[in-house]
Known about the structure:
Layout (H helix, E strand, L loop, with lengths): L1 H17 L35 H25 L5 E3 L1 H13 L3 H11 L5 H8 L9 E6 L6 H9 L3 E5 L4 H11 L19 E7 L3 E2 L10 E7 L2 E18 L3 E8 L4 E8 L4 H16 L5 E10 L2 E7 L1 H6 L27 E11 L2 E2 L18 E4 L4 E7 L5 E7 L3 E2 L2
Parallel strand pairs: 2-3, 4-12, 10-14, 11-17
Antiparallel strand pairs: 1-16, 2-4, 5-13, 6-7, 7-8, 7-10, 8-9, 9-15, 11-12, 12-13, 15-16
Amino acid sequence: MRKAISLLLCLVLIGLTAGCMAQDAPKSASASAEPSASAEPTPTATPSTQDASLDLISDVLLQSEAFSIRLLQNGVAADTSGNTVFSPLGVSAALAALYLGSAGETAEELRALAGFTAEAEDVLSALASFSSDATGTQLVISDRYSLSDSYVQALSAAGMRCVSASLGSAEGTGQLNAAAALYSQAFADAFETTTPSESLLVLTGSAPSLAFDTPFPALERFQGLFESPDGLVPCDFLYSEGDLPYYEDERVQICAVPMDGGQTELLLILPKGDSMSDTLELLGQYGGDWIGADDLQAYPVRLTLPALSLTQNASLLENLLSMGLSLPFNQTAADFSPMLAESFPLSLSGFYTLTELNISETGINHDGQAPQEANFNSSEAGADMLLDRPFLLALRSKSSGAPLLLAWINTPKSAL
Length: 416
């Protein structure tokens, strides 16, 4: 990702100064070289330099990536049979919003967890340099409290939303579901109830709609078995072949599928660990390099991936607690006085990430028309990539390398 960001910053600097202005085969599985280091729901996370410096944007993206890898590793270890899916920019934006609205040791815990090195206002400014849809963050606070005008304005400027709700009542549950439905109507009933003890909730969401640039013909769909941790699961598979950005070594296969006219790419990452413990170790050691891989070379690939149908409302509370965040959840010790118009005890009650991820022949959450067939010129040359077991999926901006969505797929189907 560092290489991609450096290139992006150079291009932006050239544009500001001006005022307007060979395909090689990939390394084989026996090669010793490793992918180089690099690397919400929107496909257009394009930085602007008006409100944040280029160095600050670069730093925040790198911090978001590093934290996301740790969160992904934690989530996969904690739930060995379910899927771990979230928006890295969304979670980072939520932590930045809480960081801005906290003080003392509470603020320090949030800063340390996220890895922020700048002040909260500067982190939010960097995140605001991207399309507001890239963060998709909402703070839902009990109507027993009043947020300060300056705090609400700061979050609004960063593309975030504050919601006052009657938590603990049917009306409050409806207000919470209305906030969730802004990501997708699939979340209109994501929450069944709220309790009076809930006071401050964070929602991040991702439901991107993107079309494949690479054809996945409808007639190539077939039924097979996906090797989930809980056993074999019947699953439909999609198939395509052609010259695609690709990388392989003794640890991993990586293939990038272009989307949205080349603005975004779906990165499919298949670790070669022999066990879940091996996979977790590989994720921790190489996950950042894989997600940020920018040395993929066009190569003939025969790609088979499962048709996914995922609608997920996941609480990150236990994950954050196990990663060392405790004071924000402590009713007596949390200090969120900077976000309040009047100082009252307030603690974080929940941290939710809502994701809709449906992959079909036409793309991600996309209702377009898929080609019925394609004239593939199959040959023995090239690489086979069969995603019939747990794998890592990353949706990233082509221009900045920013990861817009991360997902560890243990099973091809899940519902609320």
